[in-house]
Prior knowledge:
Shape: globular
CATH class: Alpha Beta
CATH superfamily: NADH Oxidase
Low-confidence stretches: none
Mean pLDDT: 96
Number of domains: 1
Structural class: alpha+beta
Largest sheet: 4 strands, antiparallel
CATH architecture: 3-Layer(aba) Sandwich
Strand content: 15-25%
Bound molecules: flavin mononucleotide
Strand order of the largest sheet: 1-2-4-3
Number of helices: 6
Number of strands: 4
Amino acid sequence: MEFLELAKKRYSERRFSSRQVEGAKIAKLLEAGRLAPTAHNLQPQRIYVIASEKARQGLVQVTPMTYGAPLVFLVCYDKNVSWKNTKDRCYDNYDSGEVDAAIAATSMMMEATDLDLVSLWARAFDSKDLIDLFGLPENIIPVCLLSVGYPSEASKPSRLHDSRKDIDEIVRVL
Ligand SMILES: Cc1cc2nc3c(=O)[nH]c(=O)nc-3n(C[C@H](O)[C@H](O)[C@H](O)COP(=O)(O)O)c2cc1C
């Protein structure tokens, strides 16, 4: 499939089938996250698979944003590992960790689409809730919950999916 076809096929799904995602597909999703580019190739992305019933039940107590998906990843970065645009080189001390994790999550989302799965990226949560729930160390920063599954009979793109600004509104030629 051409990349733009895949990009058009992807949409945010909030109604998942209860069908479990096969282990081989989970492995491919994780591989997509592993292969993603990162600043200075420091690979700070950390991907938590919400696998146990205990973890799943805990998660739904702190956020409704996984919508009953059978498979959820918590994509984070390790702030002790991510590349910093350091001041000693007259740069602005920018930390690339969140971008690195977002690229990894995007790759996983597109891989899910390619595998005929549906997905939802969610950030409407309080990081502290997830840190406490999963006992994450202080260097691990949550970036998004990525829910993945098979579509249900009710699945379809939401209204916002087809709403995109014109190219002229988002592109500036300098
Ligand atoms: C950074 C980010 C955060 C998001 N957080 C949420 C969220 O917390 N809950 C939710 O239902 N959707 C969330 N979304 C999904 C967006 O609402 C969705 O991508 C947007 O409306 C466009 O729709 P589409 O993905 O179907 O094209 C998020 C998407 C991104 C990229």
